[in-house]
Structures are given as structure tokens and as C-alpha cells.
């Protein structure tokens, strides 16, 4: 049971008030969450200024994933790293944009922070929603030297996960392992205020999201699933489906949390050795934590993503998430083949 908290409570008060089964949020985690979300507010203000402060366009550099970095990928990464440095309880950071984990201070403390500083890079310059995705783990031994292996924990062990969407409104979704709560950035106070407690993803849906331009590369079960959606009321599904694809995972997942749906970025044959496009530690695990906490499911086709044992910090994974009934059907098609 989570304690009901009054709507429009500020995030600072929320983390102090939040209780699951009578257990409050540890003070070290409260400190980390406040520093992190304050930094996202700074980032939101910069995103809103865009070209006026010269932050659009390519940085002309590449990251560890071999992707071209946008200026905002670098700015967001630097801001987030700087923003949590004073956190006493944080031992280390892993980011999609940096090859090796960074210790914070001496690398000692209770928590590890992982993030995709800027999700939806291809949408920055066209003024479409982008965001930040984060995951918080417990450091296995708070007093031992920080290692990469400390971060390689299955998604189910996360103590918190969330995202911030920089869209028409700046919205924060957070789970502390007891449901999912939503906050909106209030321009007047400059703070995140609680707008919804206990978000639930509807079990059924008639909306799907996938990059259709990759259709010819998909595996047979994904092709079958999408073909059946496209066949509409005249096909085996006997209902019409709608498609939405924003190409920012944060915005697509926010839609799924808001009104149901299924989102897929599956493995495909473009690069058969690559398990998928999305990253397990910075995208799939934190989003999976939120989706499961809201009553949805997330799989790689066969297995629950949150049960996967990560092998490497930057590993990629095939992702299918959202409304239970649809994800179950996708699992059925994958296990039958
Ligand atoms: P990032 O900007 O962090 O690299 O992530 C982009 C991801 C994700 O947000 C989105 O779902 C997907 O890439 C979009 O891929 P397409 O270019 O295939 O649309
Ligand atoms: Mn991303
Ligand atoms: Mn990114």
C-alpha cells in the first residue's frame, strides 16, 4: 500500500512524504532524486531556449555506441554528471554517452545512477518531444572500490527508475518500486508538482508503435503481429488498429503509460549480431521497471527484460512493451516459431 499524497505536492515534499507499506524513502535516495530532478529542470529550461542559446545541431563527435552526438547529447550528459556530484550517497554514474563508469567522489556510497541523458536525439532539431531516462541501483558493497560489475544487475533490482519528457509540458514519471507517479513542471514555482498517483496501463489496446520502415528486416513473429494489426476489423484481430511512432522512446512510452498501447523496437536483420537498437541499462530496464509497476509487460520477444542478467554496460536488447494482452500475444508468436 502506498500512502496517498495530495495532488500538486512539490517533488521535494513528495519524496519526504512517500511511503510504501509504511516505509519511507531513505534520506540518501531522497537527496539523489532531488539533485537529479533539479538538474532535469535546468535541462528543460535549456531545451526550451533551443537555437536562442546555440544548443541545436551536431556536436561533430561520436560516442561509445559509434553514434554521432548532437550538442544536446553532450550538454545533457555534462549537466547531469555535474548536477549530482555533491550527492553523498552516490558512488558512481554510468551514461549512454561515456565508455566507462565514473566514480563520484571516492566511489563509495549506497547508490549507482545510470542514464540516457538525452533520448530521441533525432528529434532535437525539429522541436519534437525528447527526454532523459534514469535508473538507480544499490551498490552491492557501499564501502568497496567501484567496478563496472557493480552496475551489471538485472532490471528487477532497481530501487528507482524514471524519465523526464521535454515536450509541450515537461513531465516526470517515477517509480520507487511501488507504482508509478507523474509530475508536471510548474512554470510559476519552477518545481515538479504531483499530477497523478498510481498510473495504470490498460490491459487491452488498439494502438501500436514501431518504425515501419524496418518492416522488411523484421523477424517472422513481429511481421505476423503487425500484419494482423494492419488487417484491421476484416482480419483475425477483428478490430482496427491505430499507429503512432514518435521516435523518442520517452515520448512513445509516455503515451503507453497515459492511454495504453504497445511499443516495439525489436531485433531485426539489418545487423543480425546486434540484439536490437535500444540499450538494456539506460533505456529498456528503467522503462521496463515503470511499465511493470504500471501493470504492463516488457519482453525481448521471449523473456521478461527485467530478469535478464546484463553482460555489458552498453549492451542492446530487443524491446516489446506495453499493454499486457498485446505483449502476451507477441510472446506467444515468438515462442510458437
Ligand atoms: P537516443 O537518442 O538516446 O540514441 O535513442 C533513440 C532511440 C529511441 O528513443 C527511439 O525509440 C529510437 O532510437 C528511434 O529509432 P529510429 O531512428 O529507428 O526511429
Ligand atoms: Mn535513447
Ligand atoms: Mn541518448
Summarize this structure briefly.
28% of the residues lie in helices and 25% in strands. The protein is globular and about 60 Å long. It is built from seven helices and 19 strands.
Structural features, described:
With 337 residues, the chain is an alpha+beta fold. The protein has two domains: 11-196, Fructose-1,6-Bisphosphatase, Chain A, domain 1, CATH 3.30.540.10; 207-336, D-Maltodextrin-Binding Protein, domain 2. Helix content is 28%, strand content 25%. The protein has seven helices and 19 strands. The protein has helices at 11-17, 27-49, 71-83, 220-231, 249-259, 280-293, 324-336; strands at 19-20, 23-24, 58-62, 68-70, 90-95, 102-103, 111-119, 130-138, 160-166, 170-175, 181-186, 191-196, 207-209, 242-243, 262-265, 278-279, 297-299, 316-317, 319-322. Strands 6-5-7-8-9-10-11-12 form an eight-stranded mixed beta sheet, with helices on both faces. The protein has a five-stranded mixed beta sheet with strand order 14-13-15-19-17, sandwiched between helices. It has a two-stranded antiparallel sheet with strand order 1-2. A hairpin with a 5-residue loop joins strand 3 (58-62) and strand 4 (68-70). The radius of gyration is 19 Å and the shape is globular. 45% of the residues are buried. The model has no long low-confidence stretch (mean pLDDT 97).
Amino acid at each position: 500500500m502506498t500512502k496517498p499524497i495530495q495532488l500538486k505536492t512539490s517533488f521535494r515534499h513528495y519524496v519526504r512524504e512517500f511511503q510504501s507499506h509504511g516505509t519511507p524513502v531513505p534520506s540518501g535516495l531522497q537527496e539523489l532524486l532531488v539533485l537529479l530532478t533539479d538538474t532535469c529542470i535546468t535541462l528543460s529550461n535549456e531545451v526550451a531556449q533551443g537555437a536562442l542559446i546555440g544548443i541545436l545541431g551536431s556536436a561533430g563527435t561520436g560516442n561509445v555506441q559509434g553514434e554521432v552526438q548532437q550538442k544536446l547529447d553532450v550538454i545533457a550528459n555534462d549537466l547531469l554528471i555535474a548536477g549530482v556530484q555533491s550527492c553523498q550517497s552516490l558512488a558512481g554514474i554510468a551514461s549512454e554517452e561515456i565508455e566507462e563508469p565514473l566514480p563520484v567522489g571516492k566511489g563509495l556510497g549506497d547508490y549507482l545512477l545510470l542514464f540516457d541523458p538525452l533520448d530521441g536525439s533525432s528529434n532535437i532539431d525539429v522541436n519534437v518531444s525528447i527526454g532523459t531516462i534514469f535508473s538507480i541501483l544499490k551498490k552491492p558493497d557501499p564501502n568497496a572500490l567501484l567496478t563496472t560489475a557493480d552496475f551489471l544487475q538485472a532490471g528487477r533490482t532497481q530501487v528507482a527508475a524514471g524519465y523526464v519528457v521535454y515536450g509541450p509540458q515537461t513531465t516526470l514519471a517515477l517509480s520507487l518500486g511501488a507504482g508509478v507517479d507523474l509530475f508536471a513542471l510548474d512554470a510559476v514555482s519552477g518545481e515538479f508538482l504531483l499530477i497523478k498517483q498510481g498510473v495504470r496501463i490498460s490491459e487491452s489496446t488498439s494502438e501500436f508503435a514501431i518504425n515501419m520502415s524496418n518492416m522488411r528486416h523484421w523477424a517472422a513473429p513481429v511481421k505476423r503481429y503487425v500484419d494482423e494489426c494492419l488487417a484491421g476489423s476484416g482480419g483475425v484481430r477483428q478490430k482496427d488498429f491505430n499507429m503512432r511512432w514518435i521516435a523518442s522512446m520517452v515520448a512513445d512510452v509516455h503515451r503507453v503509460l497515459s492511454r495504453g498501447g504497445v511499443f516495439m523496437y525489436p531485433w531485426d536483420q539489418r545487423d543480425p549480431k546486434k540484439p536490437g537498437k535500444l540499450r538494456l541499462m539506460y533505456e529498456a530496464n528503467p522503462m521496463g521497471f515503470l511499465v511493470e509497476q504500471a501493470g504492463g509487460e516488457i519482453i525481448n520477444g521471449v523473456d521478461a527484460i527485467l530478469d535478464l542478467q546484463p553482460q555489458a554496460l552498453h549492451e542492446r536488447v530487443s524491446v516489446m512493451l506495453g499493454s499486457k494482452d498485446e505483449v502476451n500475444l507477441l510472446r506467444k508468436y515468438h515462442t510458437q516459431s
